[in-house]
């Protein structure tokens, strides 16, 4: 069935209240928040709603909804000025999942690594191929932060190494490391859905027996690895830097991403006390920070 989308411009101060208004008073079926300046942002920390300075609040309505009544309700709300900016548009009926699947193609990273949707054939059967079904967890390889990490893994000799994927999401980095020769990978994530997605993708790739998965509260004590990767967010990378650094063995390697160029030097300063850092790698305003401990 078709849908109607209502988009309102808001601020970080009132966006969440406007979202509640759309859901509770106007009959919106769902509400999402979009950065009005198209700044890419990943999932928030537990219990946190991540909003931006200029935020679009987007409500989705049934096609039969009376949008004149919805706009009238909004005009009388103290949350909005009389001349508030909004846009109402009809969305065509599509199989959104099928459309996304049709546009997710195999991608090559580095010299030998391919990430292939599980519903497509690998273009180079003899290459290092990771079959991926992201499910509900983040990580497909399409975002610059993920591709920077995949290329870094492809450039390393992981033969026989133990790797930790801190914030494993879909398991894309963990499985790539195993396919590239790692003896064992330990995936850690705060989201049980990510743990399940990683487990499913590992089974699909025939590497589940070498992948250990933990929620943070369940991980073994004094955990360390030869190689650690963490593709999360700048805030957690700063706040959790003592934890992340402790996971790296002396002489071990670390790569972190999810960092904007404007944040890179500050984030790197939280790691330079224990690691010799490589030059920061950048792509499309995103960065990877890597180095060796000791």
UniProtKB/TrEMBL annotation:
UniProt organism field: Photobacterium galatheae
Gene Ontology terms, MF aspect: protein-lysine N-methyltransferase activity
Source organism, top-level taxon: Bacteria
Protein task: Methylates ribosomal protein L11.
E.C. designation(s): 2.1.1.-
Keywords: Cytoplasm, Methyltransferase, Ribonucleoprotein, Ribosomal protein, S-adenosyl-L-methionine, Transferase
Entry binding sites for S-adenosyl-L-methionine: 146, 167, 189, 231
One Pfam family named in its UniProt record: PrmA
InterPro entries (UniProt xref): Ribosomal_L11_MeTrfase_PrmA, Ribosomal_PrmA_MeTrfase, SAM-dependent_MTases_sf
Localization (cell): Cytoplasm
Protein name listed in UniProt: Ribosomal protein L11 methyltransferase
């Amino acid at each position: 069935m078709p849908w109607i989308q209502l988009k309102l411009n808001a601020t970080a101060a009132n966006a969440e209240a406007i979202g509640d208004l759309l859901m509770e008073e106007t009959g919106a079926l769902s509400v999402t928040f979009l950065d009005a300046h198209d700044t890419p942002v990943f999932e928030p920390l537990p219990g946190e709603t991540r909003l931006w300075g200029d935020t679009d609040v987007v409500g989705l309505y049934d096609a039969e909804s009376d949008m004149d009544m919805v706009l009238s309700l909004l005009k009388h709300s103290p949350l909005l000025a009389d001349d508030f900016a909004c846009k109402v548009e009809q969305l065509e009926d599509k199989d959104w999942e099928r459309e996304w699947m049709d546009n997710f193609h195999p991608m090559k990273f580095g010299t030998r690594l391919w990430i292939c949707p599980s519903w497509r054939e690998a273009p180079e059967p003899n290459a290092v191929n990771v079959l991926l079904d992201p499910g509900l967890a983040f990580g497909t390889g399409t975002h610059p932060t993920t591709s920077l990490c995949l290329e870094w893994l492809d450039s390393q000799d992981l033969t026989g190494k133990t790797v930790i994927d801190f914030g494993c999401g879909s398991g894309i980095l963990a499985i790539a490391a195993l396919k590239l020769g790692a003896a064992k990978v330990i995936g850690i994530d705060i989201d049980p859905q990510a743990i399940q997605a990683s487990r499913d993708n590992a089974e699909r790739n025939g590497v589940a027996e070498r992948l250990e998965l933990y929620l943070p509260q369940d991980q073994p004590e004094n955990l360390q690895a030869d190689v650690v990767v963490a593709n999360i967010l700048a805030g957690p990378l700063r706040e959790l830097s003592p934890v992340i650094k402790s996971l790296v063995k002396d002489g071990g390697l670390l790569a972190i991403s999810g960092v904007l160029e404007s944040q890179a030097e500050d984030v790197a300063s939280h790691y330079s006390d224990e690691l010799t850092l490589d030059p920061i790698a950048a792509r499309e305003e995103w960065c990877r920070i890597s180095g060796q401990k000791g």
